[in-house]
Amino acid sequence: MSASSTLTNNLxxxxxQTFLQELIQELPVVVFAISPNQTxxxxxxxxxxxxxYSSKEIQDTTILTKNLFGHTPIVKSITEAWDNPNTTLPxxxxxxxxxAKDGSVRYLSVNYHVRNNFVLEGLHLWCIGTDLTDKVxxxxxxxxxxxxxxxxxxxxKIGFWDWNAHTNEVYYSQECFDIMGYKCDEFSHAxxxxxxxxxxxxxxxxxxxxxxxLHTKCDFxxxxxxxxxxxxxxxxxxxxxxxxWDAQNKAVRIxxxxxxxxxxxxxxxxxxxxxxxxxxxxESLVEENLQxxxxxxxxxxxxxxxxxSDTYKKVLRQVEQxxxxxxxxxxxxxxxxGKSLIANTIHRLSSRVNQPxxxxxxxxxxxxxxxxxxxxxxxxxFTGAYTKKIGRFELADxxxxxxxxxxDLPMELQAKLxxxxxxxxxxxxxxxxxxxxxxxxxxATNRNLEELVQxxxxxxxxxxxxxxxxxxxxxxxxxxxxxxxxxxxxVNKYNAKTKKQITVIPKKTLQQLESYNWPGxxxxxxxxxxxxxxxxxxxxxxxxxxxxxPANTISTDVSxxxxxxxxxxxxxxxxxxxxxxxxxxxxxxxxxxxLLGINDKTLQSRMRKLGINRLNEFK
Length: 619
Description:
This protein is of the alpha+beta class. The protein folds into 4 domains: 3-137, Beta-Lactamase (2-Layer Sandwich), CATH 3.30.450; 157-265, PAS domain (Beta-Lactamase, 2-Layer Sandwich), CATH 3.30.450.20; 293-474, 3-Layer(aba) Sandwich (Rossmann fold); 479-554 and 563-614, Helicase, Ruva Protein, domain 3, CATH 1.10.8.60. It contains 25 helices and 17 strands. It has a 5-stranded antiparallel beta sheet, sandwiched between helices. A hairpin with a 4-residue loop joins β6 (158-164) and β7 (169-172). α15 crosses α17 (460-466) and α18 (483-498) crosses α20 (521-535). It is elongated. This is Sigma 54-interacting transcriptional regulator. One of its GO terms (molecular function) is DNA binding. Residues 305-534 form the Sigma-54 factor interaction domain.
C-alpha cells in the first residue's frame, strides 16, 4: 500500500472518529464508555445534564470513584462483562437508580455491550441509557394517588363503576357491592340486569340520562331508588361521564360513582315533617306575634291594585319610577283611598322586597308610647321597662318603614325622625349608644302638611325631607270608572266570607253607587258592599233605603243666597250624626267608624282635630 493511500485511510479514520464523537455528544440519550480497568473514558452531554457531572470531572475516574452506581446490580454486571468480553454477545439490559452529583437519585434504563469501534481504541463497555426518572416518579405518584383514592372512596363509602357499551359489561368496585348489599357472585354484571333493580318510577328517567350521555358525551348525575339485597329500596346518588370513544367518535365507555344517600333522604323527610310542625306552631302563636310576623313578611302582588282609570295609571307610573330607587316617598290623599296599598306596592317593586316592610300608624299610638315604639328602649329606661325593646326602625333595617298618618306625629318626635332621615341614626329611649340603620321611608297623610307647617305644628325641615317624591292618591270620586270593578271584587271577596252567593249586580245598583260622592272612598265602598251582601236575601245585590245617596237629596233649585258649611263643619256634623245613631259608640262593629266606613283610629284622630268629645256631646 502506497504512502498516499495509507494517509488517506488514516484521514478518513480520523474524520469518522471525530464525527462519531461529536454525534455521541449530541445524542439525546445517556452515552458513556468504561475501559477494561473500569475507568470512564466517554461521557456525553446528556450524561452531564442528567447526572450533573461534567466530562472533565468524570474523565479517567472509575465507576466506583463517584459512587455513581453504589452497590446496584450493574456494577456486578460490568465486572462480569469484562470477565467474558465477548463482542458477539447481545446487548444486556439494566434498569435502576444512579446517584447524581447533587445527591438526587435518577432512574435510568441502560443497554450495555463490550465492543470495539472507531471512537475509542480497544475494547470498551459501551452504555446507552434513557432517563426514566420523570416516568417512574409519575408512576409512583399515580400509584400513591390510586392508593389514596381507594382509601378515600372506602372511607367515604363511594363506589366506582365502569360500563363498556360495546360488551355491555359493567365493572363494580367492592365499595359498590358494599353499598348495594350484594356479593360479587350474587350480582349480574350486565347493564340490563342492573336496570331491573331500579325502582320502576325511576327506571325510565335513568335510562334516558344514560342514553343522552352516550349521544351528547355530557356528564350527568341523578338520584334513584335501588332494590337492595334485603328487598328494601335504598336511595343512591349516581354520577357518570364518558371516558372512552371509538374511531367513529362514539362513546364506548362510561365511568362513574355511586353513593348511598338514604340517610340524607330520610333526614330531608324528617326536616320537612319538622317544618310542617313549625308551621303548625306558627299558626298557634298569640295574636301580637302573628301581627308582627305579618308586618315583617307581608308581600303584595302588583295585581292587588284594581283600576282602569287613566288618573290612577299616572299614579302607577309614578310608583314604577320611584320604586327601584331608595328615595323617600310621601303619599298624599284622603282617608280610605288606599295609601297603604301604594306603600306596599313600592316596597314590592323595590330592591328591598326580600327585607321587612314595617308599618306604623302615627295616629293610632298614644303620644307617650310612640317614641318607644319607633326607636325602642333599653332595659330600665323607665318604670316597667324590665327588658330591652327593639323599635320599629331597627326592625326595618335594610328594609322599608311606612309611617302612616305622619301629620299626627308629635312635634317633640319630629326632630328625632329628621335625624334618622338625614343621618340614618338614632338612640333608643334610655340609651346612649347610637344605632345606625339603612331604612327607606315611605310616609302618608290625609292632612295638608303645608298648612301644618304654617301653623307651626309640623317642622318645615322635616316636611322638605319627606316631600322628596310626593304621590297624590286620587279619591274614589275622581276615578268612578273603577267602581264597577271594585264592586265586583268586593262581592267576590265577601261572598266567601259571608257564605253568600251574590251573582247579580243590578245596573240600577251600580248607577246608585257611581252617583254617590264616597267621602270615605274605597274603605267606605268596601264596608257598604259587605253590609249589602249581609242584608241581601237573594243572589242579587240589594241596596235598600239604608243606603241614602246624598246626590238624591240635593235640590236642583239652588239660589245664590244659600250659605254653605265649610268642609270641616260638614265633616263635624257628619261625625256627630254617626255618633248619635250609635249612641256615642266610636269603635267596634256597631261603632261610628264602621258606619262611616273609616278606620276607628282615623275617626278618633278626626274627632280630636274637630274638637268632638263624645262624653260631652252624649252624656
